[in-house]
Structures are given as C-alpha cells and as structure tokens.
Amino acid sequence: DKLTSVTSPLSDDVTLHETKNQKMQMVKAFDIPANGELKLSRGGNHLMFMELKKQPKQGEKVSVELHFEKADPITVELPVEATNHNPQQH
Predict the structure, then answer these.
(1) In this structure, what DSSP letter does residue 11 have?
(2) Domain ranges (residues) in the chain
C-alpha cells in the first residue's frame, strides 16, 4: 500500500517529506511493503505540520488521520516530545 496523505486538527497543511543525501524534499506518498511497516523518523521519512493552529505542549497528544491508497484511513494519537528529542539516543 501507500501512505498518500495525513490530516490533523492541528494543521490544515500536513505534508510527507523524505531526507536523502542530507536534503529534505516533499513526496506524494510513502510506500509500505506487504506485511511490513513504514518508519517515520528525524532525518528520514517524516511528516511536516505547517502553520499550526496552536502550539502543542510536550506531553500532550496530537491526533492524525493517515490516508492510504488502498486501506481505510487510520486515526492515531502521537505524543508530543521536546523539540530536541532524538529517539535514537534512548
């Protein structure tokens, strides 16, 4: 399948980005392998929220709806971490 878009009450403009050769660029979709997973990470594939309607605080959760090419949408709650949070260091 493919992740084709993301919507959120936090922003009317959520885009998909990838980082290759230390350059970030917007993409139309992310491939999701059969029986696999799509990992989003700092410095890799990620979501970018533009023009936030409010600034979320660390410890809060942000609701996002993931839209796919074939599968039905899925709503998930994402934890808000510190701006310098790097899960690879934990």
Answers:
(1) B
(2) 2-89
Tens digits of per-residue pLDDT, 17-67? 999 888 999 999 999 998 989 998 888 899 999 999 999 999 999 999 999
Beta bridge partners of 78: 62
Fold of 2-89: Immunoglobulin-like (2.60.40)
Q: Which residues contact 82 (CB under 8 A, 6 or more apart)?
A: 58
Q: State the sign of the Cα–Cα–Cα–Cα dihedral 26, 57, 85, 39.
A: negative
Torsion of CA 67, 39, 44, 84, to 10 degrees: 100
